[in-house]
């Protein structure tokens, strides 16, 4: 890859001025975000340095098993994050893990089998990150939507159960709405691609000197891939998680936060 | 023949005993009025009988079978619980009147639904009316109708006429009395209504965590 962009350490250090601007705003406006900002920036720098060296190492070794392990590690981290957003839904980690594994595996397999991507670490790892990251966001939204709806519609769910409805029948509308909530942001952002923002992957390729016409092909692939990934993970998480709001006696049980 | 037995039932929630050692037996056609102070656990007792909450002590039997062992969905179709200020779900009245059919894996029968609406003094075109457009009284009529479309063996009424206008009350009670006379179902009705209590012949009082039943033989 020819490096048309190569940020020197010196110019990067100067770009730290941008952080200072945000710190000044926080200080002047008494937002009390200074400490948090500094911690986030330091964390980001440290994490990225580690990941940078790790990726360089993995790319050099170019071993399929190591690539696979790295992909699973990404999914594991995403699943842990998904659990955090579940507000106490029992078994949320396991649901997130299987949901993300399923959506990532299906999506990546199709991309590899159709020849769009090669099973090479420098392609597999970043794309797995995108797929798992977007699935994670979708799963988080699904959990939040389920929690919110079960609280708001407690009475309606109760009435359905009282009439003999199974949890599946009693929560049908809630589940559908949760799936929609999980997928909606992807559909919305895809709609404005190219009009409002040049999406991440395309921007990266263009900055790296790739012909924009070539770059859009990758971006179109990303659209397909994100729709599939958020769709699969939202459906899986909704169908697995709604059951956790009921006990085996078909009684509504809201998770304790 | 239907027999509902509550045997030394008790209910505890978060370490607090709501009631204990409640026992009674009901047969076809029994109509029991449940009275007692607010917060005394009348509503909890009805929900427990409906299997919407589980008792923490004792047993409830329907036709000699322990309720804890019966398939809960089938049980709730036979032991039907209706509450005050019924919450309607979905978008239209039809969504609400379809559910009893869906629960039984049946295709909704529009003629029956319309007949039900008319029995509740509501016109047929209410079937496709949005639930948000109904008045409080109309909502309660649709709510109760959901419980009556398939006559249950036991009907649990949790203050269903509280806060309703006289006309709505009359319509709802007329429908329930007609069904009770025809199907000889067991009715347990929680109420604070003086008139209803005065007419009652079979009274269960839930007070200070205990239940006492007083049955006046009418003949």
UniProtKB/TrEMBL annotation, chain A:
<comment type="similarity">
    <text>Belongs to the UPF0014 family.</text>
</comment>
<protein>
    <submittedName>
        <fullName>ABC-type uncharacterized transport system, permease component</fullName>
    </submittedName>
</protein>
<feature type="transmembrane region" description="Helical">
    <location>
        <begin position="216"/>
        <end position="242"/>
    </location>
</feature>
<feature type="transmembrane region" description="Helical">
    <location>
        <begin position="61"/>
        <end position="79"/>
    </location>
</feature>
<feature type="transmembrane region" description="Helical">
    <location>
        <begin position="123"/>
        <end position="143"/>
    </location>
</feature>
<feature type="transmembrane region" description="Helical">
    <location>
        <begin position="190"/>
        <end position="210"/>
    </location>
</feature>
<dbReference type="InterPro" id="IPR005226">
    <property type="entry name" value="UPF0014_fam"/>
</dbReference>
<dbReference type="Pfam" id="PF03649">
    <property type="entry name" value="UPF0014"/>
</dbReference>
<feature type="transmembrane region" description="Helical">
    <location>
        <begin position="37"/>
        <end position="55"/>
    </location>
</feature>
<keyword id="KW-1133">Transmembrane helix</keyword>
<feature type="transmembrane region" description="Helical">
    <location>
        <begin position="6"/>
        <end position="25"/>
    </location>
</feature>
<keyword id="KW-0812">Transmembrane</keyword>
<dbReference type="GO" id="GO:0005886">
    <property type="term" value="C:plasma membrane"/>
</dbReference>
<keyword id="KW-0472">Membrane</keyword>
<feature type="transmembrane region" description="Helical">
    <location>
        <begin position="91"/>
        <end position="117"/>
    </location>
</feature>
Automatic annotation (TrEMBL), chain B:
<dbReference type="InterPro" id="IPR027417">
    <property type="entry name" value="P-loop_NTPase"/>
</dbReference>
<keyword id="KW-0547">Nucleotide-binding</keyword>
<dbReference type="GO" id="GO:0016887">
    <property type="term" value="F:ATP hydrolysis activity"/>
</dbReference>
<dbReference type="InterPro" id="IPR050093">
    <property type="entry name" value="ABC_SmlMolc_Importer"/>
</dbReference>
<dbReference type="InterPro" id="IPR003439">
    <property type="entry name" value="ABC_transporter-like_ATP-bd"/>
</dbReference>
<dbReference type="InterPro" id="IPR003593">
    <property type="entry name" value="AAA+_ATPase"/>
</dbReference>
<dbReference type="Pfam" id="PF00005">
    <property type="entry name" value="ABC_tran"/>
</dbReference>
<protein>
    <submittedName>
        <fullName>ATP-binding cassette domain-containing protein</fullName>
    </submittedName>
</protein>
<keyword id="KW-0813">Transport</keyword>
<feature type="domain" description="ABC transporter">
    <location>
        <begin position="4"/>
        <end position="219"/>
    </location>
</feature>
<keyword id="KW-0067">ATP-binding</keyword>
<dbReference type="GO" id="GO:0005524">
    <property type="term" value="F:ATP binding"/>
</dbReference>
<dbReference type="InterPro" id="IPR017871">
    <property type="entry name" value="ABC_transporter-like_CS"/>
</dbReference>
